[in-house]
């Protein structure tokens, strides 16, 4: 289990001061746990004894072991493709790539969905379905493809959706953001500065920030109303976006059902436009027609 998972798994059995400590660790993870035990205790307004007791409850042998676990996770968070492959290469089973890769990708999807709170998911969907809110979507170098995928579907579902992608124009687009609008940000390791900046600027303009990230969590989580952490590590030099894609498709399917009457009308108008532009081939249509 990740450090944050261990903290969350035992939080309900903790004292109020221990939960206060855990909240500080989660809000400022991983930096809060990289200082001295005295600094952590001071930041959480608890005693060093409380820190030691909380760590014992979560299965750590002491503060040095706790920090070693955090440093190991930080190393994973900033790993590049070569380092990621080295980790897997030393422990690969003797089987075809189709089996070992797909097995891990499917396990990632299962664990990702299992760890999502259905009520929080529903709350996210309600935000996206609210006609009074405009929706802005952004992603990074890799997650930008997922942001584009979500954007195209949201455009078919509802009006007032904007993709923040072009570096030359997204600063202008941010001028349109008002209080109550929603930013959906996709950001996975090695966490991009531009995506963080967009999150910060939207948060300053009082937009609701929703983060879709990985198991280590992008720094944007400190600004986010909702954070959904997907499992992305697979036996490859590059991470798998399959879990995030499944999550996005769950969101799209839920929004479609919630707004079906308007979605149906919008889709019929769109299909008429497609017919007029001859974007799609009709069955039986000849190449010369």
From TrEMBL:
Keywords: DNA-binding, Transcription, Transcription regulation. The keyword Disulfide bond does not apply. One of its GO terms (molecular function) is DNA binding. The keyword Ligase does not apply. Gene3D superfamilies: Glucose-6-phosphate isomerase like protein, domain 1, Winged helix-like DNA-binding domain superfamily/Winged helix DNA-binding domain. It comes from the Bacteria. This is Transcriptional regulator, RpiR family. Residues 1-77 form the HTH rpiR-type domain. GO terms for biological process: carbohydrate derivative metabolic process. PANTHER family: GLUCOKINASE, RPIR-FAMILY TRANSCRIPTIONAL REGULATOR. InterPro entries: Homeodomain-like_sf, HTH_RpiR, RpiR-like, RpiR-like_SIS, SIS_dom, SIS_dom_sf, WH-like_DNA-bd_sf.
